[in-house]
Write a structure and sequence with these properties.
Radius of gyration: 19 Å
Number of strands: 0
């Protein structure tokens, strides 16, 4: 297996995990947490802050990993040999492919 294929698989998986974490946390905050946090009393606000921190971290990770995945995809599509070639191909791959 080529190293770029392995890296592509790892980035795709990590991106999916980050998005699923974000989705699950937001659904939990919207659907389950209001009732649970209301019953939690004084422990409610810190728990809500921790859940919001998880959501922010998941969103940031999804963004960073998604950008890395896009750069890797551009490098693979363009057949880039180095980082400069990959970054040079990025606008073309991002804007002109279907």
């Amino acid at each position: 297996m080529d190293l770029s294929v392995a890296a592509q698989a790892v980035l795709r998986g990590a991106h999916l995990i980050a998005l699923l974490s974000l989705f699950g946390t937001l659904v939990f905050l919207a659907a389950v947490a209001p009732a649970a946090l209301a019953e939690a009393g004084a422990a409610g606000p810190p728990a809500r802050r921790r859940l919001l921190r998880i959501a922010r971290l998941s969103a940031a990770l999804a963004l960073v990993i998604g950008i890395a995945w896009l750069v890797l995809e551009a490098a693979i599509i363009a057949g880039a040999e180095n980082a400069a070639s990959a970054l040079h191909a990025l606008p073309t791959v991002a804007l002109d492919t279907q």
